[in-house]
Protein backbone atom coordinates (compact mmCIF):
# COMPACT_ATOMS: atom_id res chain seq x y z
CA UNK A 1 0.00 0.00 0.00
CA UNK A 2 2.88 2.35 0.74
CA UNK A 3 4.22 1.82 -2.78
CA UNK A 4 0.93 2.93 -4.32
CA UNK A 5 0.80 6.06 -2.18
CA UNK A 6 4.28 6.98 -3.37
CA UNK A 7 3.10 6.85 -6.98
CA UNK A 8 0.13 9.11 -6.17
CA UNK A 9 1.98 12.14 -4.84
CA UNK A 10 0.37 15.43 -5.81
CA UNK A 11 3.48 16.60 -7.64
CA UNK A 12 3.63 13.45 -9.76
CA UNK A 13 -0.08 13.46 -10.54
CA UNK A 14 0.16 17.11 -11.56
CA UNK A 15 3.12 16.30 -13.82
CA UNK A 16 1.17 13.43 -15.43
CA UNK A 17 -1.77 15.75 -16.16
CA UNK A 18 0.59 18.36 -17.61
CA UNK A 19 2.27 15.68 -19.71
CA UNK A 20 -1.04 14.78 -21.35
CA UNK A 21 -1.80 18.44 -22.02
CA UNK A 22 1.69 19.04 -23.42
CA UNK A 23 1.33 16.20 -25.93
CA UNK A 24 -2.13 17.34 -27.05
CA UNK A 25 -0.86 20.89 -27.64
CA UNK A 26 2.39 19.79 -29.26
CA UNK A 27 0.70 17.50 -31.76
CA UNK A 28 -2.18 19.84 -32.60
CA UNK A 29 -2.27 20.39 -36.35
CA UNK A 30 0.58 17.95 -37.08
CA UNK A 31 0.20 15.13 -39.53
CA UNK A 32 0.49 11.87 -37.55
CA UNK A 33 2.22 10.17 -40.48
CA UNK A 34 4.80 12.94 -40.88
CA UNK A 35 5.37 13.19 -37.13
CA UNK A 36 6.01 9.45 -36.79
CA UNK A 37 8.34 9.42 -39.81
CA UNK A 38 10.33 12.31 -38.33
CA UNK A 39 10.40 10.58 -34.95
CA UNK A 40 11.72 7.34 -36.41
CA UNK A 41 14.48 9.30 -38.13
CA UNK A 42 15.25 11.01 -34.82
CA UNK A 43 15.58 7.67 -33.04
CA UNK A 44 17.94 6.38 -35.73
CA UNK A 45 20.12 9.50 -35.38
CA UNK A 46 20.12 9.25 -31.59
CA UNK A 47 21.25 5.62 -31.59
CA UNK A 48 24.00 6.48 -34.05
CA UNK A 49 25.13 9.35 -31.83
CA UNK A 50 25.26 6.98 -28.87
CA UNK A 51 27.13 4.36 -30.97
CA UNK A 52 24.42 1.79 -30.27
CA UNK A 53 23.39 -1.01 -32.60
CA UNK A 54 20.05 -2.84 -32.31
CA UNK A 55 20.41 -6.62 -32.17
CA UNK A 56 17.89 -8.75 -34.05
CA UNK A 57 15.82 -10.87 -31.67
CA UNK A 58 17.18 -9.28 -28.50
CA UNK A 59 14.64 -8.92 -25.67
CA UNK A 60 14.42 -5.24 -24.75
CA UNK A 61 12.18 -2.84 -22.85
CA UNK A 62 11.33 0.77 -23.66
CA UNK A 63 10.84 2.06 -20.10
CA UNK A 64 8.75 5.23 -20.01
CA UNK A 65 7.94 4.91 -23.70
CA UNK A 66 5.40 7.69 -24.15
CA UNK A 67 3.25 7.68 -27.30
CA UNK A 68 6.17 7.54 -29.75
CA UNK A 69 9.11 6.01 -27.89
CA UNK A 70 11.91 4.06 -29.41
CA UNK A 71 9.53 1.12 -29.81
CA UNK A 72 8.28 2.78 -33.02
CA UNK A 73 11.79 2.37 -34.48
CA UNK A 74 12.69 -1.02 -32.98
CA UNK A 75 9.44 -3.00 -33.04
CA UNK A 76 10.47 -4.90 -36.17
CA UNK A 77 14.13 -5.22 -35.15
CA UNK A 78 14.14 -6.36 -31.52
CA UNK A 79 11.64 -8.14 -29.24
CA UNK A 80 10.15 -5.11 -27.51
CA UNK A 81 8.12 -4.49 -24.37
CA UNK A 82 7.06 -0.88 -23.79
CA UNK A 83 6.04 0.51 -20.41
CA UNK A 84 4.30 3.76 -19.46
CA UNK A 85 1.63 4.79 -16.93
CA UNK A 86 -0.17 6.96 -19.49
CA UNK A 87 -0.56 4.46 -22.33
CA UNK A 88 -4.34 4.29 -22.03
CA UNK A 89 -4.60 8.09 -21.99
CA UNK A 90 -2.30 8.46 -24.99
CA UNK A 91 -4.38 6.03 -26.99
CA UNK A 92 -7.48 8.06 -26.15
CA UNK A 93 -5.91 11.51 -26.57
CA UNK A 94 -3.48 11.24 -29.47
CA UNK A 95 -3.80 10.17 -33.11
CA UNK A 96 -0.12 9.17 -33.25
CA UNK A 97 -0.52 6.22 -30.86
CA UNK A 98 -2.50 3.07 -31.50
CA UNK A 99 -1.32 -0.17 -29.93
CA UNK A 100 -2.77 -2.12 -32.86
CA UNK A 101 -0.10 -0.56 -35.13
CA UNK A 102 2.57 -2.48 -33.19
CA UNK A 103 1.22 -6.02 -32.76
CA UNK A 104 4.61 -7.45 -31.81
CA UNK A 105 5.13 -5.01 -28.90
CA UNK A 106 4.10 -6.05 -25.39
CA UNK A 107 2.64 -2.86 -23.91
CA UNK A 108 2.65 -2.52 -20.12
CA UNK A 109 0.38 0.14 -18.60
CA UNK A 110 2.14 0.85 -15.30
CA UNK A 111 4.54 3.25 -13.56
CA UNK A 112 8.26 2.74 -13.96
CA UNK A 113 8.57 2.06 -10.23
CA UNK A 114 6.25 -0.98 -10.35
CA UNK A 115 7.72 -4.47 -10.59
CA UNK A 116 7.03 -6.73 -13.56
CA UNK A 117 5.41 -10.10 -12.90
CA UNK A 118 7.60 -13.08 -12.19
CA UNK A 119 10.83 -11.09 -12.19
CA UNK A 120 11.02 -10.72 -15.98
CA UNK A 121 14.39 -9.42 -17.22
CA UNK A 122 15.74 -8.00 -20.48
CA UNK A 123 19.03 -7.98 -22.36
CA UNK A 124 18.78 -4.26 -23.12
CA UNK A 125 16.91 -1.37 -21.51
CA UNK A 126 15.98 1.92 -23.15
CA UNK A 127 14.97 4.71 -20.79
CA UNK A 128 14.74 7.91 -22.81
CA UNK A 129 13.71 11.13 -21.08
CA UNK A 130 11.58 9.28 -18.53
CA UNK A 131 13.51 8.89 -15.28
CA UNK A 132 12.92 12.53 -14.28
CA UNK A 133 9.15 12.05 -14.74
CA UNK A 134 8.78 9.47 -11.97
CA UNK A 135 7.34 9.89 -8.48
CA UNK A 136 10.16 8.07 -6.67
CA UNK A 137 13.57 8.42 -8.35
CA UNK A 138 15.42 5.84 -6.25
CA UNK A 139 12.66 3.26 -6.51
CA UNK A 140 12.47 3.78 -10.28
CA UNK A 141 16.22 3.23 -10.63
CA UNK A 142 15.93 0.10 -8.49
CA UNK A 143 13.10 -1.16 -10.70
CA UNK A 144 15.11 -0.50 -13.88
CA UNK A 145 18.04 -2.39 -12.39
CA UNK A 146 15.77 -5.31 -11.51
CA UNK A 147 14.79 -5.50 -15.19
CA UNK A 148 18.39 -6.14 -16.24
CA UNK A 149 19.58 -9.63 -17.12
CA UNK A 150 23.24 -10.32 -16.26
CA UNK A 151 25.42 -8.22 -18.56
CA UNK A 152 22.47 -6.23 -19.87
CA UNK A 153 23.05 -2.95 -21.68
CA UNK A 154 21.12 0.23 -20.96
CA UNK A 155 20.68 3.66 -22.49
CA UNK A 156 19.34 6.26 -20.09
CA UNK A 157 18.81 9.92 -20.95
CA UNK A 158 17.57 12.82 -18.89
CA UNK A 159 17.69 16.57 -18.47
CA UNK A 160 20.19 17.44 -15.76
CA UNK A 161 20.87 20.72 -14.02
CA UNK A 162 23.83 22.77 -15.24
CA UNK A 163 23.91 25.18 -12.28
CA UNK A 164 24.05 23.90 -8.74
CA UNK A 165 22.46 26.99 -7.22
CA UNK A 166 19.29 26.60 -9.32
CA UNK A 167 18.62 22.95 -8.52
CA UNK A 168 17.31 23.42 -4.93
CA UNK A 169 15.06 26.24 -6.15
CA UNK A 170 13.54 23.99 -8.84
CA UNK A 171 13.12 21.19 -6.30
CA UNK A 172 11.29 23.46 -3.87
CA UNK A 173 8.97 25.46 -6.13
CA UNK A 174 8.90 23.45 -8.54
CA UNK A 175 10.32 25.45 -11.41
CA UNK A 176 9.78 22.63 -13.91
CA UNK A 177 6.38 21.12 -13.17
CA UNK A 178 6.56 18.55 -15.98
CA UNK A 179 9.54 16.88 -14.28
CA UNK A 180 9.07 15.96 -10.61
CA UNK A 181 12.73 14.89 -10.36
CA UNK A 182 15.51 17.47 -10.42
CA UNK A 183 19.11 16.18 -10.29
CA UNK A 184 22.56 16.92 -11.69
CA UNK A 185 24.77 14.66 -13.79
CA UNK A 186 26.88 13.55 -10.83
CA UNK A 187 23.78 12.29 -9.00
CA UNK A 188 22.88 10.15 -12.01
CA UNK A 189 26.38 8.69 -12.34
CA UNK A 190 26.59 7.90 -8.64
CA UNK A 191 23.11 6.38 -8.52
CA UNK A 192 23.87 4.14 -11.50
CA UNK A 193 27.25 3.02 -10.15
CA UNK A 194 25.77 2.26 -6.72
CA UNK A 195 23.35 -0.14 -8.39
CA UNK A 196 26.05 -2.00 -10.31
CA UNK A 197 25.92 -0.19 -13.65
CA UNK A 198 29.22 0.50 -15.40
CA UNK A 199 28.93 3.79 -17.29
CA UNK A 200 30.74 3.24 -20.58
CA UNK A 201 29.82 6.51 -22.27
CA UNK A 202 28.29 9.77 -21.11
CA UNK A 203 27.33 12.33 -23.73
CA UNK A 204 25.80 15.79 -23.72
CA UNK A 205 23.12 15.50 -26.39
CA UNK A 206 21.73 19.04 -26.08
CA UNK A 207 22.57 22.14 -24.02
CA UNK A 208 20.10 24.79 -22.90
CA UNK A 209 20.23 27.69 -20.47
CA UNK A 210 19.29 25.73 -17.35
CA UNK A 211 19.56 22.07 -18.36
CA UNK A 212 21.75 19.71 -20.34
CA UNK A 213 20.16 16.70 -21.97
CA UNK A 214 22.59 13.86 -21.26
CA UNK A 215 22.79 10.23 -22.23
CA UNK A 216 24.49 7.34 -20.41
CA UNK A 217 25.34 4.03 -22.02
CA UNK A 218 25.79 1.40 -19.32
CA UNK A 219 26.45 -2.30 -18.75
CA UNK A 220 25.11 -4.25 -15.77
CA UNK A 221 27.90 -5.71 -13.65
CA UNK A 222 26.33 -6.43 -10.31
CA UNK A 223 29.57 -7.82 -8.87
CA UNK A 224 30.65 -4.16 -8.65
CA UNK A 225 27.91 -3.11 -6.28
CA UNK A 226 29.43 -1.44 -3.19
Kindly describe this structure:
By secondary structure, this protein is of the alpha/beta class. The protein has a single domain, classed as Vaccinia Virus protein VP39 (Rossmann fold), CATH 3.40.50. It contains 8 helices and 7 strands, in the order αααβαβαββαβααββ. Strands 3-2-1-4-5-7-6 form a 7-stranded mixed sheet. GO terms for molecular function: methyltransferase activity. It comes from Neolewinella agarilytica. Pfam families: Methyltransf_23.
Return the domain count: 1
Please identify, by name, the CATH architecture. Answer: 3-Layer(aba) Sandwich
| Chain oligomer state | single chain
- According to DSSP, the number of beta strands is 7
Task: Look at the structure and give the mean pLDDT.
Answer: 85
Organism: Neolewinella agarilytica
GO molecular function, one term: methyltransferase activity
Keywords: Methyltransferase, Transferase, Ubiquinone
Pfam families: Methyltransf_23
Amino acid sequence: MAEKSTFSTLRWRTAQWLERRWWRNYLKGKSPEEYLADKRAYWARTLAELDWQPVAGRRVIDAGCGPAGIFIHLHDKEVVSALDPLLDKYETDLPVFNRADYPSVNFLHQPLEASLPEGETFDAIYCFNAINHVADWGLALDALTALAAPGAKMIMTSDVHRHGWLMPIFKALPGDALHPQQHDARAYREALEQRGWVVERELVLRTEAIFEYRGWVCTADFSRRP
